[in-house]
Amino acid sequence: MAGVTLKAVRKTYQGGVDAVKGVSFDVPDGAFCVLVGPSGCGKSTLLRMVAGLERITSGDIAIGQRVVNEIEPADRDIAMVFQNYALYPHMNVYDNIAYGLKNRKTPKDEIDRRVRDAAKILAIEPLLDRKPRQLSGGQRQRVAMGRAIVRKPQVFLFDEPLSNLDAKLRVQMRVEIKKLQKTFGVTAIYVTHDQVEAMTMSDILVVMNAGEVEQIGTPTEIYRHPATRFVATFIGSPPMNLVPGTMQADGSVKVGAAHFHLPPHDFLPGRSVELGLRPEDIVIGGADNAFDMKIEFIEELGATQLVYGLLGGAQLIVQVPSGSIGNAGGTLSLGIAADRLHVFDPATGRRAV
Amino acid sequence: MDKRTVFNNRWLPLLLLLPQLAITLVFFYWPASQAVWSSFRIEDAFGTSTEFVGLENYQVLFANPAYYKAMGTTLIFSTAVTVFSLSIALLLAVMADREIKGAGVYRTLLIWPYAVAPAIAGVLWYFMFQPSLGMVARGLRGIGYDWNPLLNGNQAMVLVIVAATWKQISYNFLFFLAGLQAIPKSLIESAAIDGARPARRFWTIVFPLLSPTAFFLLVVNVVYVFFDTFGIIDAVTGGGPAKATTTLVYKVFADGRLGGDLGGSAAQSVILMIIVIALTAVQFRYVERRVNY
């Protein structure tokens, strides 16, 4: 078992495109690390560099104590699950799972035992004789997982493994992958653009944007204290509301006619700021930081309602329990707790309070 | 999904098929039936009358040792050309499939020879290896090798094999390259992570996935060496020396056109036709079974 350490890892493609601009973080042994970000943010490139499928332009990647920059993928003791599963179409499920062991000259009876064990864990024993094209998406996913666990590697790498599955199966496999990883206690790095997967699966969440790490932390930390405006709007659904405001002498933020009182801080009065309010933190009739909003539009989601309105000239979405509001057109009295407010510097996008 | 189109007018589909059907009828079925018909007949020496003789042309053919010699020649020739053109093309395609500088130029250059007409290709090789004028022949003589394909049947055979192989490599290369590029990159990467070295990756992953392409090319190449190499053989050796490079298709030409034995020649082309029909049937059966690995 081993953790993974990245030190100032950089990837510059021919032609000068910086895909990854100096990324450093640690994944402790046995942790489930999720890299999340929009497409093109460099998360897949980073994963492929850990796998050894892409060369590192500069920096160091270590698995355990060993720096693996110049080591072939085969010798890094990793297993990877690809987005399209990359099952070998001409081999049956058994041979697909056994392939990595055969290449490593594992004795035949041990291969057989390990393949059957893996198949049992993943409930794909009846499928061992089938070819990949005879399997459903979920079954292929399981075979891909089988190929990874059978080798007992130091690190699992996942490159958006659930994005080809339908929504229901995705939820199911999400739970299974997480459980398997905990059972085996193997360090995992998981790339996704889906923020629900990111939140639910990770022990450590790395939010990336434009080749750089925006924030690293536990999912709760990142949700509660997003370090940048980007993280604030990327994590959470519906995304955090951002409204322009001005810092007042009494330490509050003025947005339109409303005043929002913040926890103690040392941000200078008179500065313009961006105030962040999560739709789910705003409550109807709340006493703290009360303000009024004209209801423009309502979206019914079943369990909850999304109420659209304006605050300080910017759109505001409020998430309330279903049935709270009947019609658009009225005015709604709202409030939000001070410790649920986020303040960002509009110039740098960094968190101010 | 049902991809069938339903026509309301029953004559429209026939009308649309008509040009293709007409071409097939005029240029294939008609000459083929003529060949079958003439193979049962003998023409007199002056071409003034023909006579129905049943299977006599075939009996004469199968009693003739020269026919078996041509069969042997064809076997050697077709095996050599197919093996060399397929394996060299595969090697070049694997090389060209890597990400290298100038890959586009390299690939284009490799495809060009296919645009050269067989007879022209034959003449080119003939000139290069012509014992008294050819550059390569002079080189071979220079290093003390007694090169004379005009007298030495084995050397003549080597020469037509080289010329026919050179001509066919481009075609095979094109298909192999397309086949290689159709293999998802993630399969190769996955195999690399699974601990397979490049050579093992090639034989356990790439090659099995290429096998439908390879089999298709095998059949196409066999048909090519059986028929389309006529131009090359005619230009390079004219079937000689001493019929050392007379393949079945060349013998059809030599006996019918030069020898004036239309009936015997027609019988040979009918046999060739049967061989090709058999090969195509085998191909279709095999491809149906294997194409969706």
What does this 3D model show about the protein?
The complex is a heterodimer of chains A (353) and B (293). Chain A is α+β, with helices and mostly antiparallel strands. Chain A folds into 2 domains: 4-232, Rossmann fold, CATH 3.40.50; 241-344, OB fold (Dihydrolipoamide Acetyltransferase, E2P) (Beta Barrel), CATH 2.40.50.140. Chain A has 8 helices and 21 strands. In chain A, the strands form 5 sheets. Chain A has a 6-stranded mixed beta sheet with strand order 6-7-8-3-9-10, with helices on both faces. In chain A, strands 13-12-11-14-21 form a 5-stranded antiparallel beta sheet. A 4-stranded antiparallel beta sheet of chain A has the order 2-1-4-5, with helices on one face. In chain A, a hairpin with a 2-residue loop joins strand 18 (304-311) and strand 19. Chain A is elongated and about 75 Å long. Chain B has 293 residues and is mostly helical. Chain B has a single domain (56-290), classed as MetI-like fold. Chain B contains 12 helices and 2 strands; from the N terminus they run H-E-E-H-H-H-H-H-H-H-H-H-H-H. Chain B has helices at residues 11-39, 56-63, 65-97, 103-111, 118-129, 135-142, 153-181, 185-193, 198-228, 230-236, 248-258, 262-290, and strands at 41-43, 50-52. Chain B has a two-stranded antiparallel sheet with strand order 1-2. In chain B, a hairpin with a 6-residue loop joins strand 1 and strand 2. Chain B is globular and about 75 Å long. The model of chain B has no long low-confidence stretch (mean pLDDT 81). The interface between A and B is medium-sized, with 25 and 19 residues.
